[in-house]
Amino acid sequence: MAAIYSGIYLKLKSAKTSWEDKLKLAHFAWISHQCVLPNKEQVLLDWVSHALVSYYNKKPELEDEVVEKLWAYLDNIIHSRRLQNLLKSGKTIGLSFSIAQVINERLSEACSQKTQQNIGTVLSCSSGILSTPSLSIIYTAKCELLVDLLSKLSNLACQQLASDDTVGSQVFNVLQLTFAQYLLIQRQQTNPNRVFGQVTSHLLQPCLLLRHLLTVRSWTQADDNHVRHHLSREIRNQVETLLQAGLFQPELFSSYKEDLLPEQELQEKKKGALKSLLLPVNTMQTKLGSGFCEPALHGAVVAGSVSLLYKLFLDSYCKAENHLVCFHMLSRLFGCLRLSGLQQGVKEDTLSPADWSTELLALEQLLNLVLSSDIYNVASDRIRHKEIQFGFYRKLAQMLMSHSQASIPAWFRCLKLLMSLNHLIVEPDLDDLVASAWIDARVSEPRTKKPQETLINTMFQTYSKLRQFPRLFEEVLTVICRPAADELRLPVFSAGLTVKLRECLLELPPNQILDILCLFVEKCQTLIVPAVEGSADVALKLLSVSSVLHAFLFNMRSLDDVTPSPVVLRTQSLLAKMQKGIIQPLMELLQAPRREEEKSDLWLKKASDSALLLVYTWVEVDTLFGVSCSKYVSPAAEIAGAVTASAARHGGISAFLPGVEEQCWERVMELANSFASTSKYCLELLTLQKMKMILMQTTADLQALQHAAAFILESGRLSMSRGESEPWDGDISAISDLTYPTAHWYLVISNLTILLPYISLKDVEYIANVLLETLVLAKAQEAGADPEPSVSIGKISLGLMHSSFLPEMKVLRCAFLTSLIHQFARVLPFAARDSVDLPLQQLSAGNIPWHEEILAPCRPVDPLEVPSENKLLKNELSLSWKTLEKVAQCIVLLAKNRCPVILKESQLESCLGLLEIASLLKLDSLLPSDCTRCFLVLLSLLANTRASVSCSKLLLLKFLSTSFHLLRCLQAGFHASDVLEAVMTSQLTASKFFTDVLTVPVWAQYLQEVQAFLENFLQMIIERRQSVRLNLEKFMSFLVSCKPDVGAAKSKGWKNGNPAAGQLLLMAFTTLCHVVTLYLQQLPEKKLQSADVLSALLEPVVLQVVRTVEHGLQSNTQNQPLPVAFIPSVTTLLKADLSHPVKKGWQKEPSGFLEQPRIKLYQKFYSQILRELPCAGGNLQFLQSALQFLTVFCSVPELYPGKESAITVVFAIKKLLTGPAITTQVIHSMEMELTEVLVQLLGNCSAEEFYTIMRLVLQGLEMRNVWRQKAKEVLSAVTLTRLLLSCPLSGDKEKAFWFASPQIITALAMQTKEACQDQSLISTIVVPILETVAALLRQGEGVILNPHHVALAFSILLTVPLDHLKTEEYRGVFLGVHEVLFSIVQCHPKVLLKAAPSFLNSFHRLVVSVMHEGRQKGDRGNTDEFEIILKCAHLVERMYTHIAAEMEDFTVFSAFIVAQYVTELQKVTLHPAVKKHLTEGIYHILDLCIERDIKFLNASLPAGVREVFKDLYNDYNHYHKAKKQGEEKYTA
Hints:
The protein is mostly helical.
């Protein structure tokens, strides 16, 4: 041994031994037990460390390969199990500090990109050192080395993030480990000045750059997933923790105070004291200002860092007495931004739009922090500090105004925050604000429009509360009257702003609104109207003013009988002034004769728009006030006198607009009609208003109504025919040539109930045709892609189709159906279109009065003409029904003669689109003739058309499926067997196209639709007793006579015919068998005659199904899976055999009932299904069908082949559940079928078999499965346990299950603990375990008696993570935890009292998680996700309510529950909807608190939390307690 020792040691030390040999010897010495060196491990570590240190100190010259091997050797030792075992046993082994220096230098070289070799091994070494306590002392004992390492690793990570290369995980894993070590050391440091120095000198810059790059990186799929989703967030959190603890310790506050406060403030606070040498803010500013990264990045990094540093500063020092210091910190940090240079006269050109966006975002975050921390107290700032804060914010506002950035959302948000701080900050620049942020702002993008509307809404609310709304609109009027910044301004009020304006106007005193209106009317009358002629600029101003007047008059509170008389008189005066001073002069201006070329002038168009908008507004408001307020006297009555009656009789609109002559109005109408804009739309609105006023009279003028309705439709006919339109946002003043068709169509459709009774049949057909055209376009363009507040023509048409009004408009629906049939006929090929005998051509003939059935009852009856009228009516009605009869015969004849029309793919697509439109009609509410027409169209499409060979098979299947679905909705029952025969003939002919798509989902969907159609049709024949025997026998004989296309089969190499046709026939036989069997089972015993008829029919059907199945199984090759279509057939066959009404004693002797060949068929099928079941995880349809067969098969244990039993089936199900394609979603989809199988299995198995099944389940719950990465084994066992709980057990089986329940719940607890360590297993394992535990506790009420076993559930709940989850995962975990808690509360109350702390902790985790997920965020993007959070909050509220109502013993914990709640509430700002639920819940807990509890909470809660509690308790007293006492007062 001595020889071995001395030889190896000397050779390692010898200069003569080559490095290759030294490395081999060192490796041998480490792994070999034969080599015995005193303190061998330390010696070898020292040797390799010395070798590396010497090399980097430039002593020996080594090849790169040798150096690499030395690093690898060091890495192997550090990570070896041998070293870890020695350290665990207590042996002392260490490394030298010099190796830490070498590692840091190597990383420094990698950062400077001198060499990238060995870096992975070096990182692995440092990772091993840091994760081993006895080795990591080389860093922890010398903090400078650890700081240096952290700095180098941060730079290395930044380098990787800034490049385009894929991001790996190694650097970030080591970085996270280093951060954790440093944070541990940082907390142990006692000298805050030293820590501050370390952080600012070495870590501040790399950490800020790292955080920025992690935040802004555009991650790709190639990047490491763990870094992307977890490490990046974890490292950002560690950076914030490091900066918080390093820069803002409580002991440093005095230094910040000295550095920040002006000299005079300091002298007041601390006279004669010398300033500290530490200038923390100055140091930070210097570090932020120096170029620590590329110039292109520097500005963005500083902008992102400033808000972070300010947030951390506020978190540490923000108290009421420190608000001035906090403000000065804000002003100093703002000085680091490039925006601060703009205040000092630096040119704007230096900032690009991207830079502006970054800087404004930073400013927004700073102002948000000021607002949320309540740093700016207006009174305190004015009285104590000479408005120092106000001056700062004022300069900010001036800078933002002088550098308008209306294309950047953050610019609007900054202004909104300044206004929220104090409206006086922006008030001196209110005119500029109104101009640049509202009237002259060219904002079109939704992401910018939303913050703009928020800012303007803030202005509305602020000036509304201050009762200074007229002051705001004075500025608006001033800006409107300035020369326009652009040729065409955007509308003053968007749809969103109009809503906000309405909210404010409802709160304002009416006199203030009238002040604003008078101001606008006066300005318009004196300055704008006189100067409008010939001036486009003035005409644009006029339109803006008109739109404001319209918005105010339409959204203010209406006059009524309680409105004070002065307000009514003032309103009358205003309308009279508006009519005389604005409308009349404009009418006179517009009616003046002009040359043709002058009529296209912009000023004339805008003047016309303004005039008609004001006329419509005036008429509408005048009419409304006259109806709603008896004190109101219309100016029209004063001016017009008795003219109105004759004018109304002649249909002149001048009747409703006094002071305007008829000829003048006609000339204005002619001019307005020439512009497809606001004026034309207003004419239509006025005509509609006229119709309403005529209808309000006692005797309506029918002719005037018909003229008015025709005028409205005719007005937009030309624009609609062009087919060019854009979405419209509902703003009347902003209608253009492209939005006019949308506005016109909106007016027509939304007022159809008024228009429809007074328009001609031709106009009804026109509306139906346009409706169909727009729906076809909407389907092609997907109308849902329009901007949210806007409407398009397609959306409007779709809205009508979905509305409940359309079924009431029978004439329109009849015309629409006629138009739809015409469109189907047009789609047919040219050759077919010329054939008059085709069904669709006959149905689309123009001479058939389909509408007579609707119009006949509505016609006035003249006694002299009754006989001839009735005769004509009968002829017309009989003509339509004769046509339908002829078409029906034609369809059947064409199907029998096999003369189909061949459709190309484009024609098939068109037909499918039209079918989808037809599906929007409520087919079950059609009139008989329409219903029959629709049925015949669909039948003709199925029976008389065929797709060309080149068509897409999937498209054809979708077309056929849709047709069958609609046929099933109609359910017309005539010529039953002929219809069935025609349909099946066409489908069998078409089936030869589908032989290569039998495995795609569309084929299965098609088969389902055909089956559903046949099933409904056959059931209808039986239920309505429509020649049952004749129809069914005829259909069956037809099916028997059908043979799959043998010729085609041979040509394509199919041995046993066309498989697609075979599946169709089998499905038809199966459906017939199923319907008859079901009917026989439900038939009362009295109706034996019917039973005999159907039983006689059932026998040959069963035999035919058997033959077809056997034929199909023979054609199925050995390794080929079972066709899905066969499984329901065999299931139906077995059900038919088992429910046969003749032989009832089969249970005693099943072989006597079931023929031996039939038993063999079922057994063969059973065996095949068990073989395929484990591999079919991805095919849900197969699984559901197979499990349904097993349910029926297992209900008769005598059918099991050989020695097989229930255990075989359970084993197959277990293998299925462990398959790779099985997910929790798949399990939920087939849970009902699985349960039904297990109910049959467990109901019929023996006790011994059940014990074996339980052992199988318990084996799956063993911990070794998780350790061996067999998560699916665990999932299958957990699922089986949950399914067993759904099955009724009794006797020994029940005892056996509950005897094993403690073992099950213990195993589930251990599995949860292990699974929670892997994020990917949360939804796969943890959620199913929670569901199973909840079910186990519910079913175990009164059975699980040991409290310890119930308490184990709490250990599961406290292990499960509730943070850093995706929303869907969070929902599953939350609901699971909630269900377990509720199961314990309801079923195990005694255990609950003993384990109250565990229950409260588990429930509190739920509350905290809801608060975290439901906190206020900038923009709730996904409403579905937010609905999930709301549901969770509602469940928390319910649990609080349940605790308060049912659990009296929990009263002692009420103060504790409230304290937990307010402590968490203080940390977050909740979304109002979430807060509502949680607050309602905690109010019920406060009901339990007595006065002593309230005093205790007020005394013991920390300062910030106490304020939150006081607010909560005040609200509780004000809202909840008062309401509760009121309810109790009236409770018996």
